[in-house]
Structure prediction request, 138 residues.
Amino acid sequence: MNLLDAYALVAFLVGGPAAPQVRAVLRAGNAGVATANLAEALDAAQRVRGMPIGRSMDVLEPLFDGPLTALPLDRAVAQRAAELRAAHYHRTSRPVSLADTILVASARPGDRVVSSDAHLLAVAAAEGIETEALPEQG
Prediction:
């Protein structure tokens, strides 16, 4: 499964530089997003990019019946995310967000994290998870 972070979803929603790559991931199917990253994407799309949350959900909702799976946050994933953040977070050298450690904690063998966030990609790689780098926001 290709695990998309909030940046990837926002790029898809508002046509950012990574949108073509994210569309290709979605077309290939078997994509996932942790619910924490979904919330972060909805917030950023509205607050930063001006796309109303309802409109974002109108765009994303049909995908949840096909190529995109919302990965729930359960107790085991929450514990693993907290362990990952405690192990990898550093305020200046690796300020990985809690939502992103939830994404990494949601990964299963064979999954790949898709993001432009170098800190997230570094944590995923350190945990033995394959990564795909997206272009950064222009």
